[in-house]
Specification:
Blueprint (H helix, E strand, L loop, with lengths): L1 H11 L6 H12 L4 H16 L3 H14 L5 H14 L5 H14 L8 H28 L6
Helix pairs in contact: 1-3, 2-3, 3-4, 3-5, 4-5, 5-6, 5-7, 6-7
Amino acid sequence: MATKSSALKASCLGKEPTPPVCIGHVLFLAGTREPIVLEGRLVCADAARLDGRTGEAKEQYQHVAEDGEPSERLVLEARLGVAECLMPEGNFAGAFSGWRAVVHSLPLAAVSDRDRLTSRCREVAVELAESGYRAEVTDLLAQLPQP
């Protein structure tokens, strides 16, 4: 599994064929709900977001959020990614709503990498606070575990 995951990440980060090719191939071989597929979509979504292609990233994040189990780390990361992609569109209300849902789900979820998710929640909170949600964000950040 680690080998497949590493190859998929390399592909999605531009070291191999383009992300749509790698995702299409993996979907064909594994199916949309397999963890390796969800992880691959998440890696591709992160790469697209960091490259400024937020529309493409949001679409990939939505696939992960819809195809995974609601309490899984990948789904929570994807929902957070969707919220991040809404901000450049000017949809700060939607971004805040999505971020708040992840913050509320985090303590209830059985996730292995809670520190990473908590850190990402804090990062998104900074941008939301700067966009007019400072009071709301401050109250919810208090509920997150300290790093």
